[in-house]
Amino acid sequence: MYHILPESNGNTIGIRVEGQLSVDDYATLLPFVTEVIDHHGNIRILSDLRDFKGTNIRAMAKAICYLYKYASRVEKKVIIADEQWVYNWARLLGPLFKTEVRCYPSSKIERAWEWVSN
Question: Which fold has domain 2-117?
Fold first, then answer.
């Protein structure tokens, strides 16, 4: 399950993920992100993954294909997480983005918002 964070503004989208992301979650999230891209051209994303518990292979494949398609439209990407495995995945998938991807612990979320917004 995911929630769009209230700090989201303009082309900056904050997404908090809780539990597992399913294909159904992506069926609503990805069109929302596409709409922001269509409206603003480029986007900045903050993904709060503190409570992320994983995904299934079909959902992951859908997300990776989407990220690859729109990678050039992502100006900045920041990940909030306290688990090392999330940082490892971020390093592995980071090359799909044509921009810098930063990771911050949850204690630095304000700093992460500042970086992704400017």
Answer: Transcription Regulator spoIIAA (3.30.750)
